[in-house]
Amino acid sequence: MRLYRIPFSTNVERVALALAFKGLDAEPVEVDPQDRTAVAAVSGQELVPVLDDDGRIVSDSTRILEYLEERYPDPPLYPREPARRAECVLFVDWFNRVWKVAPNAIEAELRQVNPDGARVATLGAEMARSLDLFESLLSDRDYLLGEFSAADCAAFPFLKYALVHDPDDEELFHSVLVENLPLGVGHPRVAAWIRRMDAGPRTPA
């Protein structure tokens, strides 16, 4: 098994968390962010992560999580009870299609010649308010949906920037996360969850 990755990628970290949880080994294939030829050659597109599982090529972090669950079901990354599994699928979909809209839009705005400061502020406030939602989700829970799941893999690599930021990471998108996720005294559960997740393993490390 091989995992194509670039440094500091949030989507790659999603898969690294899932692989470690399932006890699976994967050889890292380091990709130059400025030259994605190797990724395109193996997958027909340039985005990471890409998983090569003995010739089976899977791209897109969410699709890889689903593939790993189907191919290697133990331990389960998605709850096995149908209703709870549906909740997990819905959460990941919401995070991808709704929560990520604001930071992506802020990054795009900041790349403009004359960024709209008011729009950036409005979107940033939306991101900040979301911390209250995650704080509530973690009431009496160690993980977002109770037990460790794909929900944690999907959200942690983004929400961790409220507390964890490698000084060598200069990605604008990650700076957007740092600046707009003001983790305060009202979010002790989120802080504890971030620390708990950050202390866990990733594969490849």
Notable characteristics:
single chain; 205 residues; alpha+beta; Glutaredoxin; Glutathione S-transferase Yfyf (Class Pi), Chain A, domain 2; four-stranded mixed sheet; 53% helix; 8% strand; globular
Textual characterization of the structure:
The protein is an alpha+beta fold and 205 residues long. The protein has two domains: 2-71, Glutaredoxin (3-Layer(aba) Sandwich), CATH 3.40.30; 82-198, Glutathione S-transferase Yfyf (Class Pi), Chain A, domain 2. The chain has nine helices and four strands, in the order E-H-E-H-E-E-H-H-H-H-H-H-H. It has helices spanning 10-21, 37-43, 61-71, 82-99, 101-110, 117-137, 150-159, 172-180, 188-198; strands spanning 2-5, 27-30, 50-53, 56-59. Helix 5 (101-110) crosses helix 8 (172-180). The longest helix has 21 residues, at 117-137. The protein is globular, with a radius of gyration of 17 Å. The relative contact order is 0.15.
